[in-house]
Amino acid sequence: MASLFSKISSFARSPQGRRAIEQAKQAAKDPRRKQQAKDAFDKLRGGKGKGGPAGH
User: Fold this and answer.
1) How far apart are CA 44 and CA 48, in angstroms?
2) What pLDDT is recorded for position 48?
3) Is the pTM higher than 0.85?
4) Helix 31-47 / helix 15-29 crossing angle, nearest 10 deg
């Protein structure tokens, strides 16, 4: 498992990783993206224990 974290940390330090991190930060600031994420989490939470597909 340590090798997975070392690969992730080395990627984060690379130019490509820095670009990806910056793009993720910019996307997180976008109000439309925030709403999309909130809707997705609400949909996941709402499906549990309320007779979702597993309950039928």
Assistant:
1) 7
2) 55
3) no
4) 80
